[in-house]
């Protein structure tokens, strides 16, 4: 019983602190792919749109209609995670809002920057 009580005391403040990512529409403005085996970097432009709504991430681009990527969880203030992605809200109060995205696979690490507006 003491164990459960102690667990609740420590877990409840963490759960209460977690905030939902704001509802945003973001346009990716630049991407760098890093090959984790060779550390070679490839830079390219992107047409990906990130839409955050009601705690979920929706993706679309010129070749694919919008689809649900997953539920977004706050891991620490200003940092969120969903699937293979980590999202860092780099500028909260400014307009446009800037986010940094990191997407990690075994064969690539993708780092990108996106400009967002609140929905």
Describe what this molecule looks like in 3D.
This protein has 119 residues and is mainly beta. It has a single domain, classed as Beta Barrel (Lipocalin), CATH 2.40.128.20. 13% of the residues lie in helices and 55% in strands. The chain has 1 helix and 10 strands. The protein has one helix spanning 2-17; strands at 24-34, 41-44, 49-53, 56-61, 64-71, 73-76, 79-82, 85-89, 97-104, 109-118. Strands 1, 2, 3, 4, 5, 6, 7, 8, 9 and 10 form a 10-stranded antiparallel beta sheet that branches. It is globular, with a radius of gyration of 17 Å. 12% of the residues are buried. Mean pLDDT is 87; it is low at 3-15.
SSE diagram, text form:
Blueprint: H1 2-17, E1 24-34, E2 41-44, E3 49-53, E4 56-61, E5 64-71, E6 73-76, E7 79-82, E8 85-89, E9 97-104, E10 109-118
Antiparallel strand pairs: 1-2, 1-3, 1-10, 3-4, 4-5, 6-7, 7-8, 8-9, 9-10
